[in-house]
Structures are given as structure tokens and as C-alpha cells.
Design brief:
With 269 residues, this protein is α/β, with parallel strands linked by helices. The chain has 8 helices and 14 strands.
């Protein structure tokens, strides 16, 4: 079953500078001003039906407008489900307020563990506290990028995460338009589910661009992340002419699907 989804990069600014970040330093800056945020909220309020708005960055909580305007605005003005990708670095009080504001509307908190900046134990303690404050119907998953040469570190972190009762999700490291090379078999860490391996869905009917799209902090909409990398699948701009989703699904033309969201939301037949 398809879940219409927008992945919205609410800001570029990030308080971390991970050595393996796929976003270039020049893009890890900036955020929408108050006028732009109002137009974003108008846009989401006008989306027909109930979508999932998955908010990413940068780091959403590093942008003051995220908790002051975006979250309360989406709760008050839309019916959509709200999800977030965060490094969980925000103060506990801010995270608790987020959990309170989104109660009954929260979908998934994707908590990204970055061991260059925080210990697994401290991160997990914060994640457990947030999970207790969240809507019981919502989910929290701990994501971790598998950095070549640091897989033992990832295994140790997985043990800490799973001992706390949380779900640990490994992510293949992305480089440019592909994935990193590893010296060892990753099946033990990644599992065998195809979507976890940044596979190709070339030729399969895909609903991205119709019921799923990526939205940047500048308001540009793209059918999917791979399309954006190839400068294809542009759907318009929230602030300039509006977003025009495709009329119908089409066969996927790409050899990589770099994240699991489209498959997990039922976009690929």
C-alpha cells in the first residue's frame, strides 16, 4: 500500500561535520526565512489527502524555525503525518516538546547515530528518553552509516542500541552517485533485504514524482533523490509557479535507489 510522502529538507545548516557526510560543505548552510516558511505551510496545507512529511536537513533542530514555526504550523494547519530525521543533538527539553507537539501525528523518528560526535551510550540514553515521551503509535529507529574500516565500531554500537530495546538500522555509505567499497561481507550487518543495499529498480513501475517527491529548502521539488543527482525529474518550485507532480507512474530509469524510503512507502511495484 502506497503512503504518499514528501521528504522535505527544511534547512541546510547542520551542527555536525561528519567526515563521511554525502552533503557537500557548501550545501550544509542556510534556512528559509519567515516568508518562505509561510509559503511552505500553505503548500502542505493544500496537499490533498493525508501525506507523510518526512523532515530532514542538515539538522532540523539546529534551525530555530523548526520548533518555532514548522512543527506547530504543520500540526495546526495540516492533517499530515510528521516524521523527522535528526542526529538527536537537541537538548532533552526541546526533544520532549517535539514529542508533545506531535502526539497523535508522529510517524517515524529516524535518529542518526554519528560516533564522531557522540558515544553510543549517551546517544541511546537520549533516544530511550525520547521514545518514552513519544506517541506510543509512533516509531523510533536508530540509523548508522557503515563507514569502511570502522565496522567493528558499528557492531559495538549495534549491541548498545539493541540492548536498550531500540531498533538499529545500518546504512550503506553513499559516495557520489554510488556506494562505498568494503573489504568484508556486509550481510551480517545489513541483512538480505534488497532495499537496504541501494539497489537498482530499473524497469519497475515507480510512483516517485506522483505520490512521492523530494523538496529542498529553496522550494525545489524533484521526483526522487537519484533524479535530482542527474538533474532530472524537476517538478517545480513551491515559491515560483508551484509544484506539478507527474500524472502517472513510470518505469524507473536508474541503476541506484540510494535510500529505502520510496520502497518502504510502497512507491516501487
Amino acid at each position: 500500500m502506497r503512503q504518499p510522502t514528501v521528504e522535505w529538507q527544511v534547512c541546510g545548516v547542520c551542527n555536525y561535520d561528519c567526515s563521511y557526510c554525502i552533503q557537500s560543505p557548501r550545501t550544509r548552510v542556510g534556512h528559509p526565512d519567515a516568508g518562505a516558511l509561510d509559503r511552505f505551510l500553505d503548500f502542505f496545507a493544500a496537499l490533498p489527502g493525508r501525506w507523510e512529511i518526512k523532515m530532514t536537513g542538515g539538522e532540523p533542530f539546529a534551525f530555530k524555525g523548526f520548533m518555532e514555526t514548522i512543527v506547530p504550523g504543520l500540526v495546526a494547519r495540516t492533517v499530515h503525518t510528521l516524521s523527522v530525521l535528526t542526529n538527536l543533538s537537541a537538548p532533552p527539553g526541546i526533544l520532549e516538546r517535539f514529542a508533545t507537539l506531535t502526539r497523535g501525528r508522529l510517524g517515524i523518528v529516524s535518529a542518526s547515530l554519528h560516533l564522531e560526535h557522540v558515544s553510543a551510550a549517551d546517544f541511546v540514553a537520549k533516544a530511550v528518553a525520547l521514545r518514552r515521551a513519544m506517541d506510543p503509535a509512533a516509531r523510533l529507529v536508530v540509523n548508522e552509516v557503515l563507514v569502511p574500516g570502522r565496522l567493528d565500531e558499528a557492531r559495538a554500537a549495534r549491541a548498545v542500541v539493541e540492548a536498550s530495546g531500540l531498533t538499529w538500522f545500518p546504512q550503506i555509505m553513499k559516495v557520489g552517485r554510488g556506494v562505498a567499497s568494503y573489504d568484508e561481507d556486509l550481510v551480517e550487518l545489513v541483512g538480505t533485504r534488497p532495499a537496504n543495499w541501494a539497489p537498482s529498480y530499473r524497469g519497475r513501475t515507480c510512483w516517485t514524482g506522483v505520490e512521492y517527491f523530494v523538496l529542498t529548502q529553496q522550494g525545489d521539488a524533484w521526483s526522487c533523490r537519484t533524479a535530482r543527482r542527474f538533474d532530472e525529474g524537476f517538478l517545480g518550485n513551491v515559491h515560483d509557479g508551484g509544484v506539478r507532480p507527474a500524472a502517472a507512474p513510470a518505469p524507473c530509469p536508474y541503476d541506484i535507489c540510494p535510500c529505502t524510503v520510496p520502497m518502504n512507502r510502497g512507491m516501487i511495484e
